[in-house]
Amino acid sequence: METPMTPSPKPAKNYSSSVDSSRPFRSVREAVAIFGERFLVGEIYSPKPYYTPLREETNAWRFLSPSPSYKSPEEDHHEVQNDQIFGTLKKLEAELEETKAELKLLKERESETEIALASLNAELHMNLSKLAEAEAAAAKKAAESTIAVSFERKKMEDLLKEEERRRELTVRMENFPTLAQILNLGGEQGSFRGKKERKFCSLANPKYTRQREESRVDSSIDMDLF
């Protein structure tokens, strides 16, 4: 509600119906007061019946004063609906902010989960690599053991074969004549062969027999001289 303004000093009465509108009015009350005063002054000097200026001014102010606000049921209903819509919007806005916060938290957890999965994946690959190395070492050791066993088995087989060959050679050597026997047999065969040769020569060449006899006699003489 506007505060009452002090009316400006009344202009000089020229009893004319014109109003100076070039000057701006400071308020509606001032304009109404000026126009009302001009109107009242004109009524006083007119042949019309006299009216009390105060009553007219009061009626004019009563007409221009704002009436108390009155709302129809429809307006009340619209206002209630607007309040409900506003409350719903506020609630939705709060839920939206809460959803944004939850989404941000989920993204952070997703990032942490991805980091954890990457770490677990790297650890798994490292363990698989170690397992493969251990299996390769075990396979190499088993292969070396197999080779060693095969080598030992082959060596044992070679030793057994060598021993068997020695036994066979020993048995064969036992069946063969000794060196003395071989030499004795050779001597006997040589003497027999010499006898046969001498006998054959004497039979084939009598001169050879006579020379042999002479040489034998000479030998006996020489032995007697000594």
Describe what you observe in this structure.
- This is WEB family protein.
- Residues 82-123 form a coiled coil.
- Keywords: Coiled coil.
- Residues 1-24 are annotated as: Disordered.
- Residues 1-10 have a biased composition (Pro residues).
- The protein has helices spanning 28-44, 53-64, 73-175, 179-204, 206-225.
- It is rod-shaped and about 215 Å long.
- Helices cover 79% and strands 0% of the residues.
- Among the domains are: 9-65; 178-219, no CATH class.
- It contains five helices and no strands.
- It is mainly α.
- Mean pLDDT is 69; it is low at 11-17, 47-54, 56-66 and 221-226.
State the helix count. Answer: 5
Secondary structure: number of strands: 0
Largest sheet: none
Mean pLDDT: 69
What general form does the structure show? rod-shaped
C-alpha-based Rg, rounded: 79 Å
Q: Which key terms come to mind for this protein?
A:
single chain, 226 residues, mainly alpha, disordered C terminus, WEB family protein, coiled coil
Task: Write a concise synopsis of the structure shown.
The protein is an all-alpha fold and 226 residues long. Helix content is 79%, strand content 0%.
Which helices and strands appear, and what pairs or packs with what?
Elements: H1 28-44, H2 53-64, H3 73-175, H4 179-204, H5 206-225
Helix pairs in contact: 1-2, 4-5
